[in-house]
Amino acid sequence: MLKLYSYNSSICAQKVRITLAEKGLSFDTENIDLFTNEQFKPAYLKINPKGVVPALDHDGRIVIESSLICEYLDEEFPEPRLTPDDAFGRARMRLWSKEVDEHLFEATRELSFSAMFRERMRSMTEEQRATRFNNVGDPIKRERLMSTYAEGVESPYVYQGIANFEVAFAKMEKELIKGPWLLGERMTLADINMMPFVARLNYLGLLEAWTDDRPATKAWWERARALRSFRVSITEKTTEAEAAAMKQFGSVLLERVRQRRDDYLRQPKAAA
After folding, report:
1. DSSP type of residue 256
2. Alpha-carbon distance 159 to 107, whole Å?
3. Residues whose CB is less than 8 angstroms from the CB of residue 218 and which lie 6 or more positions away in sequence, other chains included
């Protein structure tokens, strides 16, 4: 039996759901509401001590960390294969996992927060906001969120997120010129890792800031969003109200995001 502890709008849970859908696997789902802090309840912390989603229960064996869950599923259920057959190909695939885990996760969080969740927090009382920040156990993460709340897209953390996406999209374009998917002719976990993050930028109305001048990446995005696994894992689990809110709050930042991207590109280091 497979059981996924998930939250519909969690980008990390989304890539696991895409992997499950590509495998054609049946699974139960338990929703963990991140906005009411269900991830910090003792019962869930026994499952995932880090207090994040997703977590996978496979016949009583718990696997955490979305990138590891996806690789676990590919090893346990090898058809259709979502990892390259050779060691070098798998190493290249894992570079994309590292790109997502080490750079794009925080970038997406900061951009999402500056666009949408910042507006939600503005409607809170000072006491409610303080409680929300105090609930963030990691002091570094708390500092990032407080900066993003105070400064929005002008926060240095948002700027770093814009730069991180620029680096990732430049790599994508270079690879996608060679073939339809990041590692060539066959879709792999490298592509699945990237899909929810690109989807979030699209929902926020910000994606074109990075893709207008990248035709191979735009073509990849159209292929990705047309996949049944993508539709059932992301599109159909995003309500019209959620999509409208992301577009409403994100699109107003588009021109400033473009400007900050241009600022990054003008730096000598970025041009080298």
Report:
1. H
2. 9
3. 211
CA separation for the pair 209, 257 (Å, rounded): 7
Integer Cα distance of 212 and 207 in angstroms: 8
Contact indicator for 18, 195 with CB cutoff of 8 Å: yes
The whole-angstrom separation of Cα 227 and Cα 269 is 37
Taking the chain, what is the end-to-end CA distance rounded to the nearest angstrom? 51
Cβ burial of 142 (10 Å; 0-12, 13-18, 19+) is: middle
Preceding omega of 139 cis (within 30 degrees of 0): no
Q: pTM of the predicted model, to two decimals? A: 0.93
- Give the mean pLDDT of the chain: 93
pLDDT in tens, 107-126: 999 999 888 777 777 777 77
> CA distances (Å), 167 to each of 70, 97, 210, 261, in order?
24, 14, 10, 11
Report the distance separating Cα 182 and Cα 122, nearest Å: 40
Structural domains in the chain, sorted by start: 2-76 (3.40.30.10), 87-271 (1.20.1050.10)
